[in-house]
Specification:
It comes from Cellulophaga baltica. It is a single chain. The protein has 13 helices and 16 strands. With 415 residues, it is of the alpha+beta class. The chain folds into two domains: 185 residues, no CATH class; 108 residues, no CATH class. It has a six-stranded mixed β-sheet. Strands 4, 5, 7, 8, 9 and 10 form a six-stranded mixed β-sheet that branches. Strand 15 and strand 16 form a beta hairpin.
Length: 415
């Protein structure tokens, strides 16, 4: 039931103590504001890390060669390991592995690339048809390299959206155009866009067989890439990826006589292991943000409780008169609680509106490494406010209970 007199009392009390009420509300509003902003940036960090992992397939394992650091089986340290086609075919065809996607790369050296009379300063990479999925690319025009292109050693190339914009300004669609790689014509068959952005679009892809045969690569490979199939949950996907990585690493070390404990020779980057570490880190950071924000809110709630104690002290005689006139204890408690909840709720929603508005305004424009579009789920934000209101009610209850417990005679004697 709406009690007009109760609301008039609340507003009269607020008008008489404007500065005190403002400062109390400010402490509560700042607590909500800080919590929402911290949670927003915690989510922004998680978004940023997720975007970093968009550069390649989430379950991909990238393998490259390095120089050995330890002697093994009579071989000296300092050997440069070289992958061969046999390594790739053995892993794919002869090992008992469950693979989702697979690919290999060969990077031709000392070549030049031109379009008409213009030099193209982009990296040429020989690869297989599986690279599109492992690189997390979408085709904007034409198609990617196929198995047929590989088997027939076709002189075809796939360029990026960035290369199209920078080098093919005179044509609407570069598919069908020719570029020259070391004066050998290659027909453009597709234009791709990498989800990681332009930093991954400085590359021209050609069939790996063509790269090896035309540019004196023999059977050399520079990178091997594999991915594990989807799993039921994240932890299972991580374990599945680690198992795959271990089996491939063990085989390659045996095949190239690399000591099991040699930190050189072979480099491996497992996306799932990286994701697990980063997500664990962001999870801990978000927990820390929650802790800081909740501590700030608690400080504000304690301030509300203290103010309510002062209110009770100031209105002791008034409370005594009310009790002498027949006011029930719960009526006294309700009067104090009403004011406490009102101040807490208004302050909490004010802090929420300002924080959500700020995130909405600046969030999409933030361009910082590992922070993308800081934001907070509205339901979570509202839950924190309702939690704050409950805390405000609890904070007001104890002063209210003290007020209801004052003996009428003692209250009337108060000066």
């Amino acid at each position: 039931m709406f009690d007009l007199e109760r609301w008039q009392e609340i507003f009269d009390t607020i008008r008489k103590n404007k500065l005190r009420t403002f400062l109390t509300g400010l402490s509560v509003a700042s607590g909500i504001f800080i919590l929402v902003i911290l949670l927003g940036f915690g989510q922004g960090m998680q978004n940023g890390i997720a975007k970093e992992f968009e550069s390649d397939s989430a379950t991909s394992i990238w393998i490259w060669t390095e120089t050995t650091q330890k002697a093994h089986k009579g071989l000296n340290p300092g050997r440069q390991i070289q992958f061969r086609n046999e390594d790739y075919t053995t892993i794919v065809d002869k090992m008992d592995l469950t693979l989702d996607q697979k690919s290999a790369f060969y990077l031709p050296q000392n070549i030049t690339t031109t379009y008409k009379d213009d030099a193209l300063i982009y990296r040429v990479m020989g690869t297989t048809n599986g690279a599109q999925f492992l690189e997390n690319q979408d085709m904007l025009e034409g198609r990617f390299i196929t198995i047929k292109d590989e088997s027939q050693v076709e002189k075809v190339a796939v360029i990026s959206d960035k290369i199209q914009r920078e080098a093919f300004t005179d044509v609407d669609n570069p598919v069908g155009e020719y570029i020259k790689i070391s004066n050998i014509p290659f027909k453009i068959i597709g234009v791709y866009k990498d989800k990681a952005g332009e930093r991954e679009e400085n590359r021209i892809f050609i069939p790996i067989t063509t790269a090896q045969k035309v540019f004196n690569g023999a059977d050399k490979l520079d990178n091997l890439v594999f991915s594990s199939p989807p799993a039921a949950n994240f932890d299972e996907a991580v374990q599945q990826s680690i198992t795959l990585k271990t089996k491939i690493d063990t085989y390659l070390r045996q095949a190239h006589s690399i000591a099991p404990d040699d930190e050189g020779g072979i480099g491996i980057n497992n996306q799932m292991e990286n994701a697990k570490r980063f997500y664990a880190l962001t999870g801990n950071i978000k927990l820390f943000f929650w802790f800081v924000g909740l501590c700030t809110i608690i400080a504000g709630v304690v301030g509300v409780s203290n103010i309510m104690l002062i209110v009770v002290k100031e209105r002791t005689k008034e409370i005594g008169i009310r009790k002498a006139l027949g006011a029930k204890p719960w009526s006294i408690i309700g009067m104090i609680l009403h004011e406490s909840v009102f101040v807490t709720a208004i302050s909490g929603f004010t802090g929420l509106i300002f924080s959500m508005g700020l995130l909405e305004l600046i969030g999409p424009n933030i361009e910082v490494d590992y922070i993308v579009n800081p934001s907070v789920d509205f339901n979570v934000a509202m839950s924190t406010v309702f939690l704050l209101v409950v805390a405000g009610a609890i904070a007001g209850f104890f002063p209210a209970w003290r007020a209801a417990s004052i003996h009428t005679i003692d209250a009337l004697r108060d000066e």
